[in-house]
Amino acid sequence: MTLIFQKDLGTLIPPSALVFPPHTGRPALVLRHLTQPSSLKDLIESLGVPHCEIGTVFSLISGLELPLDARTVASDVLAVAGADPRSLASPRFLCDGHLGKLALLLRVMGFDTAWDDSWSEPGMARRGINEKRTVLTRSRSLLKRASMDNAMLIRSGVADLQAAEVLRRFLLVSQVRLFGRCSKCNGRLREVAKADVAARIPPRTAKWLDTYYLCRECDHLFWEGTHVTALRQRVARILSQCAATDHSDEP
Ligand SMILES: [Zn+2]
Fold first, then answer.
1. In 10, 83, 87, 155, which residue has its Cα 20 to 30 A from 134's Cα atom?
2. Distance, CA 217 to ligand 1 centroid (Å)?
3. What are the φ and ψ backbone dihedral angles of 179, each rounded to 5 degrees?
4. Containing domain of residue 47, as a range?
5. Residue 224 within a domain
6. Given this model, what pLDDT does residue 246 score?
7. Which residues pair with 54 in a beta bridge?
């Protein structure tokens, strides 16, 4: 069987499995000798591509799109495309234990984001399903679980680039809102009158700031201090990263 992977998916496949070496600009081509039929899902995941990252699979022999549970045919030639960006009706995320910085950034940008520090893949899979959250992880073994349909493989090891990946994949750029969620506990923030929290404001801050927010869950008090200026600039860079990547995908 011959498989041709879209460029982005090719980066997930071990170089030893590719016909042409990576970074040569040639297609990510895989030849597989099938000793017995299996599902397309199992075959493609055995090459390192989790099923949540697969968009469409076309047979270039029959001209038909194939479902992931279709059985493999030794003589077939398949074109495998990556998952398309899609919007979420109600964005809710669950980050794995390695993605604490990403979780914090997504909260800062106003998205409901839980962080699972149990380091248990079965536990995380269950929690994602039970809480109807999109699982964000760098663990391909977690994503190979059959239940991991509402999930995404995070490619980058850098939090800001990871956030840009999530915003692009789920079309969230226009939904970014600073001071929507508590960065510490994920609770919703509400604006409060300065007079109601006056006793908790450092005197030097109270002199020049009038806008304050309280977390509805942990009661932490936030205000737009100088660190927020840096944060706004950081989020602006993440958004410009999304725009730059979008542009690079244009024909
Ligand atoms: Zn909180």
1. 10
2. 5
3. 60, 40
4. 2-82
5. no
6. 56
7. 82
Rounded Cα–Cα distance for residues 128 and 148 (Å): 9
Question: What domain count does the chain have?
Answer: 1
DSSP-assigned letters across all residues of 147-192: TTTSEEE---SSHHHHHHHHHHHTT-GGG--TTSB-TTT-PBEEEE
Task: Give the pLDDT of residue 243.
Answer: 81
158 Cα: distance to centroid of ligand 1 (angstroms): 24
CA of residue 42 to ligand 1 center, whole Å:
41
Domain for residue 184, yes or no?
no
* Cα distances (Å, whole numbers) of residue 55 to 51, 75, 102, 182: 8, 22, 24, 34
Pair of tokens at residue 133: 């959250």
Q: What distance in angstroms lies between residue 125's CA and the mean position of ligand 1's atoms?
A: 24
- CA of 221 from ligand 1 middle (Å) equals 9
Q: Is residue 164, in this structure, part of any structural domain at all?
A: no
In the chain, which stretches have pLDDT less than 70?
A: 245-251
Ligand 1 center from residue 225 Cα (angstroms): 18
**159 pairs with which residues across the strands?**
none
Residue 114 backbone dihedrals phi, psi, to 5 degrees: -95, 150
Separation of CA 181 and ligand 1 centre (Å): 8
pLDDT at 224: 82
Residue 133 within a domain: no
Please return the burial class of 63, using the count of CB atoms within 10 Å of its CB with bins 0-12, 13-18 and 19+: exposed
Closest to 148 measured CA to CA, from 163, 157, 136:
136
Bridge partners (DSSP) listed for residue 78: 3, 59
